[in-house]
Design a protein that fits this description.
Elements: H1 3-12, H2 14-23, H3 27-49, E1 58-63, E2 68-73, H4 95-98, E3 115-116, H5 118-126, E4 131-135, H6 139-142, E5 152-153, H7 159-162, E6 171-175, H8 180-191, E7 197-200, H9 203-210
Parallel strand pairs: 3-7, 4-5, 4-6, 6-7
Antiparallel strand pairs: 1-2
Helix pairs in contact: 2-3
Length: about 220
């Protein structure tokens, strides 16, 4: 960006410059973001109130360096699966299933499977009992919520190949989001000679709801 453009950003775009200083991002980036946010907010208000001409079938482009707007008219794609002549997508997808965490809502079969409640787990850990918590969720789920105690993380799909990392003599509490996957892994470990394995009833979500509300529920 030339010197004059830098001056224009500083003088004419004070909010973008201030945001850039706070975030160490380019003032131009923030200028574009603020412009996009303003346009999106305006379009939302227009659609809610039913006034004006919304950007339906049109694409608005901003050249922030030149501070010029361009408008492109878009033709409808006759083969579009949403709005084409023969649409195949007629409803929103199930995002829980799409992300691979479907099945937790179904009742968990725990007959014959040793289990532990969230309250019991908290009480035993606070007494200092040497329980090994095995979290079998996916890595991205740990970024959402986790128990406030040391734990071993082995995703469900890797347990078979990494079972040697676990000690059959330990008392292991298997946890997941809401108890479904952990119950499957607890049964698997039982068949492999782990005699002191337990399933956390309701998973991390139940622990959050019953014991520690500071933990995120998802």
């Amino acid at each position: 960006m030339c010197w004059l453009r830098r001056v224009g950003v500083v003088v004419c775009r004070p909010y973008a410059w201030r945001a850039a200083l706070l975030t160490k991002a380019s003032p131009l980036d923030w200028e574009v973001r603020l412009a996009q946010a303003l346009v999106q907010a305006t379009e939302t208000i227009k659609l809610i109130l039913g006034v004006g001409e919304p950007l339906i079938g049109r694409l608005l482009l901003l050249d922030a360096l030149q501070m010029r707007w361009r408008e492109l008219k878009l033709r409808k794609d006759p083969n579009c699966p949403v709005c084409g002549e023969n649409p195949t997508v007629r409803e929103l997808i199930d995002y829980a299933e799409f992300c691979g965490i479907r099945g937790e809502e179904a009742p968990v079969q725990t007959e014959g499977l040793p289990c532990i409640t969230p309250a019991q787990l908290k009480e035993r850990l606070e007494r200092g009992e040497p329980l090994v918590i095995l979290d079998v969720r996916e890595p991205f789920e740990l970024q959402i919520s986790r128990l406030p105690y040391p734990f071993r993380h082995i995703p469900m799909g890797e347990v078979l190949e990494r079972v040697h990392e676990l000690n059959p003599a330990d008392e292991i509490v298997v946890v997941c989001r809401s108890g479904g996957r952990s119950a499957q892994i607890a049964r698997l470990l039982q068949t492999m000679g782990f005699g002191k394995v337990k399933n956390l009833i309701g998973g991390v979500n139940a622990y959050a709801q019953e014991v520690d509300p500071s933990i995120s529920v998802y």
